[in-house]
Amino acid sequence: MPLFCGGSSGQRKASSHWTGDNQCTNNGTGPINGGSLVVMKENDKNKLKILMELRPAMEGFAGIPQETRLLFSSFCDIPNIELTGLLNQYSIELLPALKEGKYYKNNKSLNKKIHILSRHVVSHKGVPSRNIVERLFWEFLKRRQRLRLSAKVTIGIPQKLTYFDADDFRDFIWQLLFSKTLPIGDFDKVTGAKFSVLRYILKGGGLGI
User: Fold this and answer.
1) Which of 8, 43, 92, 121 has its CA 20 to 30 A from that of 111?
2) DSSP class of residue 185?
3) pLDDT per residue over 51-68, tens digit each?
């Protein structure tokens, strides 16, 4: 199960893997440095499953952000690849998206689905701090979560991912990740991919510690 970690540092370490069932694990051997994280695994249909971190695409126009967008768009063109884009943030605690395998069929559950996804979309903006007390409170929560996540990664507890159904939020995905540099002709292709959500990320980037 090879792992490739790209980025400006060019370092590659096979210290983490994606289990293929919406969990990320780390064996505690060290950090993963760089920009986009791509984890590959063969599934039962002889397809490669790729989980690609898209956080760099939220920043800037050239360099790693542009490379991330182009690479994701290129993966979308390959039929024997099962691609999933990973949504995470540098220092913002995101609200979870949908639980994998849970179906939303009737009107009540569909409303709940839209509500959950809408809350996740809003969480990308972070929590506004109105005064110094609130800022200190949220900084405390972020530090506590980093410690918890560090402990889980160190002992190898999987980090569960949730599923973001972009069918009703394609404009959000496009504006968040791709609109800066990709042509509008790529809209349907890149926004029609699968997306998962990692709620937390350690300060400094990467899934390692």
Assistant:
1) 92
2) G
3) 999 999 998 899 999 999
pLDDT (0 to 100) of residue 177: 96
The tally of CA atoms less than 13 A away on the side-chain side of residue 16 is: 26
The whole domain housing 41 covers 3-197
131 C-beta neighbours (distance < 10 Å), count = 8
Sheet holding 23-26, edge to edge: 16-18, 23-26, 159-160
Q: Which two tokens stand for residue 154?
A: 């160190």
Kindly state whether residue 208 falls inside one of the protein's structural domains.
Answer: no
Closest C-alpha to 209, from 160, 147, 157: 147
Quote helix, strand, coil % in the chain, to nearest 5: 35, 20, 45
Q: Does residue 23 form part of some domain?
A: yes
Please give the tally of structural domains in the chain. 1
Q: In this structure, is residue 65 part of a structural domain?
A: yes
d(C-alpha 193, C-alpha 148), whole Å:
31
Residue labelled with tokens 């790693």: 64
In a domain, 205, yes or no: no
| pLDDT tens sequence across 105-148 | 777 788 999 999 999 999 888 766 667 887 788 778 778 877 88
Structure tokens at 75: 């993966």
Predicted TM-score (pTM) of the model is 0.73
